[in-house]
Amino acid sequence: MMRAQWLGLLLFLTSGCLGGADECDRGATRCNGGNAETCAEDCSDLGCHDQWQVSDVCTGAQSCIAPSDTQPFCAESLGKDALCAGSGNGTYCNAEQLVQCHDGYRASTRACGSVDDFGYAQLPGGSASTVCVDPGDGTATCIPVGAKVDSLCDGVKGPRCAGTTLVECVDQYAVSKTSCGSCSTQTSQACDTCPPTTRGECRGYLGDRCAVDEDCASGLSCHGDGSGQRTCSLPCSVEAESAPASGGPNAQCEAAFDPEGLPISAYSEVNPGERLSCIAGYCKWAP
User: Residue 13: helix, strand or coil by DSSP?
Assistant: First the structure.
């Protein structure tokens, strides 16, 4: 009787039931149930086996397509998109929407500034970048309202210093400008094969911590709020902006932070808060 039980267990283990039988050939791909799937190894406490796994989830505007020259993927166009020709996996603008291409097909179309159901930005520049700009070479992107082509950004991508102003450049547009007490940039490389990245450092901006007035950008002073914390700030008047009460937005404060009045976006190297206000007679970032 015991021998029969052990024989049954052995047959169970060797039959593949412990890990589950392979349901596909590893590396195979297909469209199934409206999504793209890849056959890959799946392991659990019971063992490993190859099974179909979703590799690309299609939205309601997309279909899963399986061109003969590439693996299945989600796309909005069932045929090649003429505007994607030559750009491969590039982008182009459709009014204020950014279109992403995939192997010559129109893969997705999203409004600049759009966010997902959890409030996370879906496109470059974040929710404040609501304008689509297209240089015509497959590198269209989203930028904030008010951003302009600036000679400071000729041949430059990323942050740079113009004196004590930190400028963020995207496709020859200055998408962010911040007045600083001191400005510097630093380039680093995470690995030998990684592309170098450059970050900007701005000290003494409106709202930055300070010890003396000289730590702050021109026109700002090192102000103590009574709690022992001192920040670079500026006297302001709510009435001058026709705001109804203390705590209202103040153009004088905004100009002291960003001389161009550009909204803070995901491109901004300095992001101390969402809204500058005139509080108790001084410019502060409202919570």
Answer: helix
Confidence of residue 20 (pLDDT cuts 50, 70, 90): low
Q: Hey, what's the torsion of the CAs at 126, 131, 137, 138, to 10 degrees?
A: 50
Closest residue by Cα to residue 267 from 173, 203, 183: 173
What is the enclosing helix (H) or strand (E) of 185? strand 182-188
Residue type, 69: D
DSSP tally for the chain: helices H, then strands E: 2, 20
CA dihedral 157, 163, 167, 171 (to 10 degrees): -40
Q: Which residues pair with 146 in a beta bridge?
A: none
- Residue 156 is encoded by which pair of tokens? 């430059």
11 token code pair: 């047959």
Mean pLDDT calculated for residue range 240-268: 75
Q: Is the distance from CB of 102 to CB of 66 less than 8 angstroms?
A: no
Amino acid at 174: A
Of 259, 116, 107, the C-alpha closest to 177 is 259
Q: Is the pTM of this model over 0.85?
A: no
Q: Give the residue among 21, 26, 54, 30 at the shortest CA–CA distance from 40.
A: 26
